[in-house]
């Protein structure tokens, strides 16, 4: 019985040590990847990224990638596919960010908290004669 307990404890220590070493080596790989050029970086993640043929297909080199089904949008901004008609980080054009309380509606930043034509969201109109306050029609 004592021998079995000893083996269980030894196994647990060995597993803990191996996990700790793999985590610390992964952190070291991340640090070396950030400091070293991509051609000399080592590790599983960089190996997979180098051998992934679709990983190098960015929209700045292949604009048609953004028009594929499942793409976030048809426009390319900073190597990412976006929809400049509805993206708050690229509203109307690349890099045009909407402020807090605003949403990108039709390529324009609109204050959805007080705009009666876009109250609480794009194309949510308040009824005639009512107003938009805090994103709700005729609040109060």
UniProtKB/TrEMBL annotation:
Record keyword Disulfide bond present: no
Taxonomic superkingdom: Eukaryota
Keyword line: Signal
Transmembrane segments: none
Signal peptide range: 1-20
UniProt cross-references to InterPro entries, sorted A to Z: Stig-like
Keyword DNA repair: no
PANTHER family reported in the protein's UniProt record: F12F1.21 PROTEIN, STIGMA-SPECIFIC STIG1-LIKE PROTEIN 3
Family indicated by similarity: Belongs to the STIG1 family.
Name this protein carries in UniProt: Stigma-specific STIG1-like protein 1
